Each structure stands twice: as structure tokens, then as C-alpha cells.
Amino acid sequence: EPEVTQTPSHQVTQMGQEVILRCVPISNHLYFYWYRQILGQKVEFLVSFYNNEISEKSEIFDDQFSVERPDGSNFTLKIRSTKLEDSAMYFCASSEGGRYQPQHFGDGTRLSIL
Amino acid sequence: AQSVAQPEDQVNVAEGNPLTVKCTYSVSGNPYLFWYVQYPNRGLQFLLKYITGDNLVKGSYGFEAEFNKSQTSFHLKKPSALVSDSALYFCAVRGDTGGFKTIFGAGTRLFVKA
To answer: Which of A30, B8, B39, B85 is 20 to 30 A from B91 (CA-CA)?
Structure first.
């Protein structure tokens, strides 16, 4: 069964540094998402992406965050200047399309800001 | 505004007994409702969804959920729990209008004792 893959599995970064989290969504999927989860708790929506542009973003997704689909397979989340409170598990997800379609999640990248 | 409530942080059940994990929601328009399960150090896995039609929906691993429009609830059920069902369960909602943002509940940890 096709999977969403995320790299790296764990990223440790100094506060103030830029970090890029990478995702390869399922190949025929059209909608892409980033979520974060702090300490195994609530899953928080960050952004959705369709047709090479952001379709919706949350209040968490401020100017420090950006997303990109640089080629036909990768989907990246960049945090420009990391803060301690950015420490979390970041999940990428994709769906075939349509708001009634379930999302398929990767296993996440654990981001630790020192 | 969309919201999801999972009133129980934790549910404990003996193996072989039925289980219920509760979820209530609030959304503009008609709801699209989902249940996901998360095992340790893994991403969320889709279990089942309600879009329209029969109020009782069946999903993976013997789970089912009952949609109740008047009570705005979508409780997850299983007739006979297994120890391997122990995990974190998330209810999620998306409206049939507006953006593609999915709102997740805070999660309910299920412990099944042998």
C-alpha cells in the first residue's frame, strides 16, 4: 500500500536557525497538508496546499512558515527562524481530493529546538 | 467555527468487552466526520468516515461509529475489544462548505486490559 514518507525522522536545531521538513506524498494525491502535535496531544492544522498554492492556513502558520512543492514528488515545510515553542512532531498528510476523502499521514518528523 | 470534543482523556476496558469512545462536533453545514488511530511513534491511520447515508458506518479492524445528527455525536464503537486496540484515538470533522481545514479532537487514550 502506498505511503506518505517524511524525512528526517528527528531533527535537532538551534533556536533561530532555519529548518526544512520534507515529505513525499502518495503519488496520485492532489491535496497536501501539514499538522503538528505537541507531546502526543492535540493534532493542530497548519496548512493545506492544492494546485501549487496554499488553500487554507491556520493562525499558527505565520510569516515564519512556508510550504513548497519544488517538484512533482516532494512537499516541504520551512520554518525560517525557529523558536523553542516550535518543538513538536510535524506530520505531513495527503488525500486524493474532495473534502470527504480521508487523509493519509506520514510517521512524522520530531523537531527539537535547543 | 468548527470544533470537536472528546470528553474522555482515557477509556479503560477489559479485553472481550465492548468499547465506546465518545465524540461530539460543531460545524457549519453538513459534517464530514472521521476517526483516526495513532500508535506510539506513528502517524495517524484512518479508521472510518461518515459522509452521508446510513448512520452506522463500519471501518477497519472491526470498528464502527454511529452518527447522530440531533446530538451532533459520532461515537466510535467495537463489540469486543482486543489488547492490540490500545492506542490514541482522534475524532475529526470537516464541513461541506468553506475550506479544507480538518479539526481534530484532543484525542482519547484507550487501554484494553487482558
So the answer is: A30
